[in-house]
């Protein structure tokens, strides 16, 4: 046990230097090393893939068209797209991007029928359904 304590305490100055080095590199006008060109390209590719998957699910009818509002064009999550008083528990409606009209009714669990809990769908439930298999 004593050996571990020595190893940890000996590594502490090195760890502090690394942490300080990264935080200093992110200051000012310098580029953030965590967002290198390669990382940015990977993030963009993932966003494009997520959007394509979502669009495919909508086209196949496994998700309603309003599900497209769950992701922004850059692929970032927009689980609170209705901007109502209940956060991501706002009920999704059938018109105007989910904000007006009748309550959205959809077979989100893809079992071939509208279950009782699918007669009132929240933003969170719609988002969770987008994570399902295509």
Describe this structure in words.
With 134 residues, this protein is mostly helical. It has a domain at 47-130. It is 42% helix and 5% strand. The protein has three helices and two strands; from the N terminus they run H-H-E-E-H. A hairpin with a 4-residue loop joins strand 1 and strand 2 (100-103). The chain is globular, with a radius of gyration of 22 Å.
Query: Based on CA inertia axes, which overall geometry fits?
Result: globular
Strand pairing plus helix content: what structural class? mainly alpha
Helix and strand element order: HHEEH
Beta content: 5-15%
Largest sheet: 2 strands, antiparallel
Outline of the structure:
Helix content is 42%, strand content 5%. The chain has three helices and two strands, in the order ααββα. The chain is globular and about 50 Å long.
Summarize the SSE layout with pairings.
Blueprint: H1 2-25, H2 37-60, E1 93-95, E2 100-103, H3 123-130
Antiparallel strand pairs: 1-2
What labels would you give this structure?
5% strand; 42% helix; disordered N terminus; 134 residues; mainly alpha
